[in-house]
Amino acid sequence: MQINELIGFLNTIYPPQYQESYDNSGLLVSHDNPEVNKALLTLDITLEVMDEAIAENADLIIAHHPIIFKPLKKIHHKTPTEKIIRKALAHDIAIYSAHTNMDSAKGGTNDKLCELFQLKNCKVLSPIKDYLYKLVVFVPEAQANEVRQAIFDVGGGSIGEYDSCSYNLEGKGSFRAGDNTDPFVGKKGELHFEAETRIETIVPKHILGQTISRMIETHPYEEVAYDVYPLANDYEAAGLGRIGTMEKPMSQKDFLVFVKEKLNADHLRFSGTAETISKVAVCSGSGSSLARVAATKKADAYISADFKYHEFQDAAEHLLIIDAGHYDTEKFVKDIFYRQITEKFPKFALNLSKVNTNPINLY
């Protein structure tokens, strides 16, 4: 398979634009060969995982956590990251990561947590901000349906569970074609008035360029009049964390047992109390910063990882906090990768790493 085809698919379901500003998702190590034959799926890339990839003749590693997270000024043979990159280059193994963009995307890590905990009516806990644009274009009435459909076909006009959303207003547009033009309607040098439709719709950032290109390709005019406005609305379709409701409310004790069992976790850290657990918020990985958001949205419990001592104190005043561990709230990413890739490319060879990459041991 062409590596660009596989990476293009992954970037479609986990748009790079979804990632947090501090993140470094994407194709982090590449090779000259445009084709890949086998990929190894993993949560983390350790030296043991790299050796596993070499032993299995994999030429691509797909990971959740980026191997290059902070800027590298040197590559010697001292740190684990340096050693991994040197081995990847020496054995022609490419490395791709989908991190916070996968956390934010539909069908990613946080939706998997909702599935594990059997939560209903799940919504994004912290939607992406500054991500939506209003696209306005003026089209001759006779071609309005064609241009509008072109916008919808690439994903424009989606609001929540509704698609093909637009506002349309009839009016008259005016223009005068210059000597070097080939006008679709009207004559050169003459002021012309045309019955037009003003089409307004919403487009998210990751498909804005594609939507505009498709709109212009379909539009009959030589020069297309359109406007793009940034919106302050939250992008409710993607973002970190989820919040939903339990099918049946539980006591705090039963809920702790339930969470530990569903995650197959060695232990849970928790703080705070809730008489009954009905509304639950989750965030895979390090999500302590969203505890206040969960409380504001009236969650009874919030499950995430990497809480510090005073974060427990602060958040526990408002709801039950469960720190289920970074590894245990994300260890299922291999299964997510496997399911989504095999649905698209059923004949492509995929191996799930057998290495336990959890760096934390309990004594």
Descriptive labels:
five-stranded mixed beta sheet, 363 residues, Udp-n-acetylmuramoylalanyl-d-glutamate--2,6- Diaminopimelate Ligase, Chain: A, domain 1, Alpha-Beta Plaits
Task: Please tell me about this protein's structure.
By secondary structure, this protein is α/β, with parallel strands linked by helices. The protein has three domains: 3-103 and 331-352, NIF3 (NGG1p interacting factor 3)-like (Udp-n-acetylmuramoylalanyl-d-glutamate--2,6- Diaminopimelate Ligase, Chain: A, domain 1, 3-Layer(aba) Sandwich), CATH 3.40.1390; 106-126 and 240-323, Udp-n-acetylmuramoylalanyl-d-glutamate--2,6- Diaminopimelate Ligase, Chain: A, domain 1 (3-Layer(aba) Sandwich), CATH 3.40.1390; 132-233, Alpha-Beta Plaits, CATH 3.30.70.120. Helices cover 28% and strands 30% of the residues. It has eleven helices and 15 strands. The protein has helices at residues 3-13, 47-55, 80-90, 100-104, 109-116, 144-153, 208-218, 252-263, 291-296, 309-315, 333-344, and strands spanning 26-29, 38-42, 60-63, 94-97, 119-128, 132-140, 167-176, 191-204, 226-230, 235-251, 269-271, 276-286, 301-305, 320-323, 349-352. The strands form three sheets. Strands 5-10-12-13-14-11 form a six-stranded mixed sheet, with helices on both faces. Strands 1-4-3-2-15 form a five-stranded mixed sheet, sandwiched between helices. The protein has a four-stranded antiparallel sheet with strand order 7-8-6-9. The longest helix is centred in the last third of the chain and has 12 residues, at 252-263. The two termini are 45 Å apart. The model has no long low-confidence stretch (mean pLDDT 96).
